[in-house]
Design brief:
about 350 residues; 2 domains; Rossmann fold; 15 helices; 6 strands; globular
């Protein structure tokens, strides 16, 4: 047995009795029935995920996984590969958007080097956790991005990361990423999973022009042809087309299900990780929160395939977990109302006739 198989075996169905108990309390609060709309769905789902009818909340953590991609060699990004390393430093030093949002909301921010090409372990980068699977993946247009062993190691690294968070009292995690060319990997995975053509799935990423988008689409189509024989197998598909950070985020989704931790998925690339996790553990997507509908590529189509309703629609396409950080604050607001609003009986307010 492996950590991955043991974790999958430990996943239990969501607790519908807890969701129903939370629904009864929601209906007792001083508001018209159902008037908090989708926020009430959020509370019920949170209770079911946590197996907790009281829907008690602990701390929240943003897990940002950073890694390089060999497919960057194909000119699929508007930025050079070195930007991954530079952004790792920027996030660690507090200058990135996710750094600002995490401070603003009081979320714990954990930055994990899953496989940046340049090894910065000798530098003083506060807050960076080094769990490197390798120095970037290989070019998946030419060969599999990872070996099967690397893909499993990355999944299990994600599981171990969420285990540590849960052991520390975290009840909700947001997953985010950074890695030049990772939107190409995400587009390839989502095209393989959904059957949607790369022309609809691949977007501008870091800001490609029209010619760059056409090149990116052809790279994704070529990779899908090259790896067609393994796309039916979730683990081999992830190894062929994924990235270390994408596989790690998929591992977080699986590990969180076993630990009854709520996961808030960021944008396009994090959704590819969630979709890959759902292929490994069918039905997993139903217990995830999807933070926002990204302006990147075919994110809307991917969400529709997963039957996922995002909490926000702000035309974001930054990544880093920024949408997840904002959405966590929305979920926390919903839970605060659930816990602190008066009931009709307690406030002496007459209920509906």
């Amino acid at each position: 047995m492996s950590l991955l198989s043991d974790t999958i075996a430990a996943v239990e169905p969501m607790d519908e009795a807890a969701a129903q108990a939370a629904a009864r309390r929601l209906d007792s609060l001083t508001k018209p029935l159902g008037s908090l709309g989708h926020l009430e769905v959020v509370v019920r789902r949170y209770a079911a995920i946590r197996h907790d009818p009281a829907a008690e909340s602990g701390s929240a953590s943003i897990l940002v996984f950073v890694a390089d991609h060999g497919v960057a060699e194909e000119g699929v990004s508007a930025y050079p590969k070195e930007v991954t390393e530079q952004m790792l430093r920027n996030i660690a030093r507090g200058g990135a958007a996710i750094s600002v949002l995490a401070r603003h909301y009081g979320h714990d921010l954990r930055v994990i080097d899953a496989g940046v090409a340049a090894d910065t372990r000798g530098e003083d980068l506060p807050g960076v956790i080094y769990r490197r699977i390798g120095s970037g993946t290989r070019n998946f247009l030419r060969e599999p991005a990872m070996t099967a062993a690397q893909a499993q190691s990355a999944l299990e690294m994600g599981i171990a990361t969420v285990d540590e968070a849960a052991d520390g009292g975290v009840t909700m995690v947001g997953i985010g990423e950074m890695g030049i060319a990772n939107s190409t990997s995400a587009a390839a995975l989502l095209s393989a999973i959904t059957g949607i053509d790369a022309g609809l799935m691949a977007g501008r990423g870091t800001g490609l022009d029209d010619a760059g988008v056409r090149r990116k689409v052809e790279v994704v189509r070529g990779a899908l042809r090259r790896h067609h024989a393994v796309l039916h197998d979730p683990l081999r598909m992830l190894a062929a087309l994924g990235g270390f950070e994408i596989a790690a985020m998929a591992g977080v989704c699986i590990g969180a299900a076993a630990r009854r931790v709520a996961v808030v998925v960021d944008g396009f690339i994090a959704t590819a990780a969630a979709a890959a996790a759902d292929r490994i553990l069918p039905g997993l997507a139903a217990r995830l929160f999807f933070s926002h509908r990204s302006a990147e590529g075919g994110h809307r189509l991917a969400l529709e395939h997963l039957r996922a309703r995002p909490l926000l629609d702000l035309d974001l396409r930054l990544g880093e977990g920024t949408g997840a950080a904002i959405a966590i604050s929305v979920i926390q607001a919903a839970l605060a109302m659930f816990h602190r609003m008066a009931t009709f009986a307690g406030a002496g307010v007459a209920e509906k006739l």
